[in-house]
Amino acid sequence: MAETDTSDLRQTPLHDLHLELGGKMVPFAGYEMPVQYREGVRAEHLWCRQQASLFDVSHMGPCFLFLKDGLGKPGAHERIAAHLERLVPSNIAGLKPGQARLTVLLNGEGGILDDLIVTRLPDASLDGMLYIVVNGAVKHDDWARIERELGDVVSLQRADDRLLVALQGPDAESVIAPHFPEAVELGFMRCAHVQKDGERYMISRAGYTGEDGFELLLPSNETGLGLVKTLLDDRRVKPSGLGARDSLRLEAGLCLYGHDMDASRDPVEADLAWVIQKSRRERADFPGAERILKALGEGPAERRVGIRPLERAPAREGTEIQVDGEKVGVITSGGFGPSVDGPVAMGYVRAELSAPGTPLELMVRGKPRPAEVAALPFVAHRYKRKS
Predict the structure, then answer these.
(1) pLDDT digits (tens, 9 = 90+) for 260-312
(2) Residue 3: band (very low, low, confident or very high) from pLDDT cuts 50, 70, 90
(3) Chain centroid offset of residue 32 CA
(4) pLDDT digits 0-9 by tens, 5-21
(5) Residue 331 Cα to chain centre, angstroms
(6) What is the spatial distance between Cα 350 and Cα 302, in angstroms, rounded to a whole number?
(7) Is residue 367 part of a domain?
(8) How far apart are CA 68 and CA 153, in angstroms?
(9) Beta partners for 359?
(10) Which of 73, 120, 121, 158 counts the highest number of beta carbons within 10 A?
(11) Are residues 186 and 232 in the same domain?
């Protein structure tokens, strides 16, 4: 078997550590990334649900967006929010200091170009700056669009040369506490900006596994690498790769861009209408508002739903969904869910078939297999929210 050509792939700052830990490296989003380590995907998945896993997500697109005319001035947050709201349907102006929000970048027709997390910095002196993380596979397109649309008033500073890791699982808080006590006080989708020993860190209580956890933006030097190694030295923490990250997010009912949503889908179809707050619906001033508000009012033709195959064979992406021999949809993500000990999937079906319990058939290897619509998520989220 010919070896995969990795000459054009980028490497994250943790590449050598992945090899040292026995990572099986594969191409992903333009990078050479670990899909799993020695114990395999199932073991990594279950460890994350039970204790804590560390994921390298440095291929993602962290960046800082800030006003060109200065930070910390009265009304600076509201002004930069108004600019970004020209591209997304969420209420960015209403973010409190240190608060993060998932949103979607839209094209002119209301189709989803990417999902991203936007955070207002907690420091009043940095009002007018937003910390944004976009998906790795489309980060260059996202950044180009932001700069093209907003570049006259804002500057974009890339931070994808830094280390971005996700510490996820029920033990994540107790693991991180000795290193960043500030993290313990954070609620879900809250962020701390920490300056320590001459270095700057972004600590966000967020992740994409359904578990409690943190995403850490670290310097890509010996200090950052040393912290990662220290976390991995904790017996409660094991490294996890892309395989477990995918099965964890699928069980949690979370979308993967380019699969469960893309430019052909709007937020209502993708079951992401909740990213559009009431104030934005009332103002109707976001891209594709006419299409999206119509879908909100009348309902979409298709909806993203959870799907449970009723036999042991998983239904993979692209599997045709049928009812009485008629195609009614397609699987967009599918695989085996270790936590539920069975196959799980997500896909789009006609809206009238989207109620949980609706019987379906999946064309697996040319044969119809029984399935049904299932409520999402398959595994309950365990995010830690502060009062």
Answers:
(1) 999 999 999 999 999 999 999 999 999 999 999 999 999 999 999 999 999 99
(2) very low
(3) 19
(4) 566 899 999 999 999 99
(5) 19
(6) 4
(7) yes
(8) 6
(9) 372
(10) 120
(11) yes
Binned at pLDDT 50, 70 and 90, residue 25 comes out as: very high
245 and 218 together in one domain:
yes
176 inside domain: yes
* Shared domain check, 96 and 37: no
Which sign, positive or negative, has the C-alpha torsion 241, 246, 251, 257? positive
Tens digit of pLDDT for each residue in 306-328? 999 999 999 999 999 999 999 99
DSSP result, 80-132: HHHHHTTT-SS--TTPPTTBEEEEEEE-TTS-EEEEEEEEE-S-GGGTTEEEE
**Residue 267, CA distances (Å) to 105, 118, 211, 273, 293 in order:** 10, 17, 24, 5, 10
Range of the structural domain that residue 24 is part of: 10-58+161-251
Residue 1 has pLDDT above 50, yes or no: no
Both tokens of 70, joined, read: 């200065």
Considering Cα of 90, then 92, then 96, then 98, what sign does the dihedral take? positive
CATH number at residue 111: 3.30.70.1400
192-216 confidence digits (pLDDT tens)? 999 988 999 999 999 999 999 999 9
The 10 Å Cβ neighbour count of residue 15 is 19
281 found inside a domain: no
Is 194 part of any domain?
A: yes
CATH number for the domain that contains residue 332: 2.40.30.110
Helix axes 41-50, 242-251, angle to 10 degrees: 60
Half-sphere exposure in the Cβ direction for 320 (13 Å, CA): 12
